[in-house]
Amino acid sequence: xxxxxxxxxxxxxxxxxxxxxxxxxxxxxxxxxxxxxxxxxxxxxxxxxxxxxxxxxxxxxxxxxxxxxxxxxxxxxxxxxxxxxxxxxxxxxxxxxxxxxxxxxxxxxxxxxxxxxxxxxxxxxxxxxxxxxxxxxxxxxxxxxxxxxxxxxxxxxxxxxxxxxxxxxxxxxxxxxxxxxxxxxxxxxxxxxxxxxxxxxxxxxxxxxxxxxxxxxxxxxxxxxxxxxxxxxxxxxxxxxxxxxxxxxxxxxxxxxxxxxxxxxxxxxxxxxxxxxxxxxxxxxxxxxxxxxxxxxxxxxxxxxxxxxxxxxxxxxxxxxxxxxxxxxxxxxxxxxxxxxxxxxxxxxxxxxxxxxxxxxxxxxxxxxxxxxxxxxxxxxxxxxxxxxxxxxxxxxxxxxxxxxxxxxxxxxxxxxxxxxxxxxxxxxxxxxxxxxxxxxxxxxxxxxxxxxxxxxxxxxxxxxxxxxxxxxxxxxxxxxxxxxxxxxxxxxx
Length: 494
What we know:
Largest sheet: 6 strands, antiparallel
Number of strands: 16
Radius of gyration: 34 Å
Number of helices: 18
Distance between the termini: 93 Å
Strand content: 15-25%
Structural class: alpha+beta
């Protein structure tokens, strides 16, 4: 009886989470379609839709992709430093690299930017106790439920996907994991419609051969972590492209209207006024005229001739349309996209004047701050991911230290090598250590270790040069000429 009650609770939780997940999928699918350039053209009038809807059906001027990609290209994890540690944790990054997350993390960040959230799942590998499996999951396939009143303590998580003619689902709880399945629409064949509806909406435990269902969760916590994008205190997080989509529709419509105006009014147009409607003779087999029929004026219009009947026929013309008016409005719309999303203008417009290095840095300030905000929010989730990796390896103390540590990211700011070297040299002159400077240069902690090893080998090959360099960095002893006495003022010594 207890087992049946637990199964009912698990199924009820799966149904609740799936309902919320399904409700989220509509906007998520829209944002992903816009990113791929699959954008349904909007129309300002039914007449325009009637005559030109099919002509521009596959057209899109895709700014959603640029806005989404611009912060992701600057989000690169280089390591994590546990609380109280002197150096980054190399073993955590080994697991990160072993799971291919140097590349897959970019997909996870892109999913969060577009869909307002993405997920990371950590689970032990039965074939390798030292390397848990870590994957990033799309917002359309995962959902996390939190304890009442908490935005961090996870109560449960659901992962759902399609496999053949079935839906599969895994329910993650702090102490156990359930696996369910149900058929897709059309996979159930029966004449009893009530039975069909029941089977399509009823999750049943998946039959497992080599493992129990449910199976225990050795980590003791829900192993799915949510990466929030632009979170709010009392509402859902916000996608970076949520405001871009309507502006993208406007830009596409303006392009369609420009193309139409170019097709119809880009050249001077002529019109015949006051003449009789032209007639076309109808000939028999012998070539004799037996009748007449009026010329199709719609055909004349398609051939760029307007023919108007009446007395006192005249010929007039009007000048070509000013197509530049459309392009100016499009530039304004693209400028609004840039301002609203803090995307640099030179990312969108595609042309640059002779900008100085300082001007270029100022132009990218908004994007840099946008990336740093994402480093903050994504970093919180990634610390929990690394903690789950430690828990999957049975390292509870390390998990606590990782939760309290901080993430190491590549520099979000784009600078020239000369600017960066100059800044690092100034930091060196005021006393910053070499390892810190190497990290600021953009090297990963593993690369810094390799670099220090290279320096050590060079010093062994040239011990005199290494000793001279070391002596040049030390302050002069107090008894040497030129050294200041401890209490001697600098002006007196001068």
